[in-house]
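Handout, section B. The chain below has 189 residues.
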Amino acid sequence: MPETVNSDLWVDRYGDMMYRFTLVRVKNPDSAEEIVQVTLLAALQAKGSFQGRSTEKSWLFGILKHKILDHFRELKTQRTFELTPEDGSDPLENAYLPEGHWINLPKNWDTDPHKAAENRQLVEVLAKCMDKLSDKFRNIFVLKEIEGLASDEICKEMDIKPTNLWVILHRARHQLRKCLEMNHWDTKR
């Protein structure tokens, strides 16, 4: 028998959590609030179809993820995710000697990713660094690395070519790594 859906408690139980989850992904507080509201309205309208195969929280967050994707689809119609001259050149363009060796070797991040994810300092610095990315780079990075969408799905949703996706991801990762290193995040923690 399906779990009973108690929509009266959704905002109290999950509202703040849903808002923070959304804000990390869309960066704009007004958009995050609107997406959460649209999600709760959609869930309220569909609560009769909840079959109890997951927890109420999982069900709500599933709807929320779809609403976040809808938000990115809407952004796609308003702007392009193709690379433009404003996106700058390849940040690694002058990082190599003529024979192909690094001019300055990147720092060795000899760390366990699971431990790093639990490091509050890293989370705070990473959030600040992600805020410095352009919306284009941030949105694509979030879809790939945080949401875990497949590359072909991102290309379809954002109407970009796979080569553009990989260039955007490469540049976003490089900018994040550089920002983390500049903010002295201790890679050995």
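Note. Residues 129 and 177 are 9 Å apart (CA to CA). Compare this with the example in section A.
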